Amino acid sequence: MSRKLEQxxxxxxxxxxxxxLGGGLKGLEKESLRxxxxxSIAQTAHPRAWGAPLTHPYITTDYSEALPEFITPPSNNxxxxxxxxxDIHRFLYHHLADDExxxxxxxxxxxxxxxxxxIAEYGSSNIGRMKHIYRVGLDYRYGRRMQAIAxxxxxxxxxxxxxxxxxxxxxxxxxxxDFINASYFSLIRNFKRLGxxxxxxxxxxxxxxxxxxxxxxxxxxxxxxxxxxxxHATSLRMSDIGYKNKNQAALKxxxxxxxxxVASLQRALRTPYPEYEAIGTRDGDDWIQLSTNVLQIxxxxxxxxxxxxxxxxxxxxxxxxxxxxxxxxxxxxLDVNMLSAVGVEVEQLYFIEAFLIFCLxxxxxxxTDEELRGIEYNELTVALRGxxxxxELIDHGARRPIRAWSLEICDRMHAICEALDGDENGNPYLTxxxxxxxxxRHPDTLPSARILAVLADGQKQFxxxxxxxxxxxxAAFRQHPPEAEIEARFVELAANSHxxxxxxxxxxxxxxxxxxxRYIAS
Length: 522
Description:
By secondary structure, the chain is α+β, with helices and mostly antiparallel strands. It has one domain (4-515): Creatine Kinase, Chain A, domain 2. It has helices at 4-14, 78-94, 126-142, 144-147, 162-169, 176-194, 197-202, 210-213, 258-270, 274-279, 317-324, 346-361, 369-385, 402-421, 428-441, 447-457, 462-479, 484-507, 512-521; strands spanning 25-31, 34-36, 59-61, 68-71, 100-102, 151-157, 207-209, 221-224, 227-229, 282-283, 286-287, 305-308, 328-335, 392-395, 398-401. The longest helix is centred in the last third of the chain and has 24 residues, at 484-507.
């Protein structure tokens, strides 16, 4: 690592501007599989009382009708972010059938076959049908099991007031948005280099149910009947049995700058893929894919982290980025935290915010093909055996112990955490950093190790442990329903979302095929 970070921090501190690092906007997108009290994936429709997933701002669905996704509004306070997520959970459970609950883990269990995972429905509007068809296409391309995995996404942006000051400190003369774009891509490149630290520290999926593996058990160890694991795994969700997608292995998406990034994604959106051409876009009269190209839409490409810009109605993500630049980044490397009722803890977010600022301020050269191969190795290695004694990762072609590397990153984050804490009571950023340093020094305290210890010591199947936690959290939320004001707000949001979906369905004035063709061509 270079000394660029220290130089930049020194300038910010000398000018009194380091305080501007704090107050960035944070938001969460948290997925949770909806299951029955018997442990199987729910086959019922998304509860109407929750609202219409197509148009609700905070409660939608991801891949499956049984995979709700909860979205928090941007906030400069992570405690408020997690509190809003808690409010959503209380409302959901207040309007959820007694024989259903939310699965507390990332990796699904009791998956008898792909047909047990119902694809999400969004009504009869063109946009709603297009969203459903995209998911049908994912089934044909990758199968449904991978799509039923749940995760937590962390959205983050630096405060607007920070950017002019930072540009001046960097002695840059480029237009402000161009500077912001380049800075976010610097952050993204460094997160790709070092983002393995997130599943290492916060991975929550070291074990899976046999049903998820669908017979592919050879390289795994059997803990108990029906429960398979790897002894030093951190996040099987982030491994090649989870989100690592072999079909996209040859896809090269640039992170050099915004223009090249957009161009590389748009190229994938236009390039035919023989396997998908063989599938076609129709099965009789039914649509089964939006296109036969490498990607149907931008979101099909999986990455640890994405540059994002809020889209307007009908606007493609790449078009929004190209027109208005990067607004925030979306971190996609977090498992659902099984040890938290809402799936994430405030302290995790303090650490990740500081780590993202570290990635911004550290020197960030362009990624070479050799380095990208090392990054791929590190991501997979940490997911499968991140806690292995003496484990080494690849750093610019050389081997480096994960423990020493992790401790160095944390050491260099110290000044950032001090600046973020400011005068805040309890020094939450420094406290979060201290706790992760202790976990690195004692890997048996990492969440993935603690989960395996509970399973082994208690002779519990992963499915039974997940059901135990899910039932405990469900009972707590049901015993403490939302306050009247929050309940009224979410009831109103649900009603508004149904009205908006109805409006969209009534407003369609072109055939579905023409609508899809226009969108694909845009």
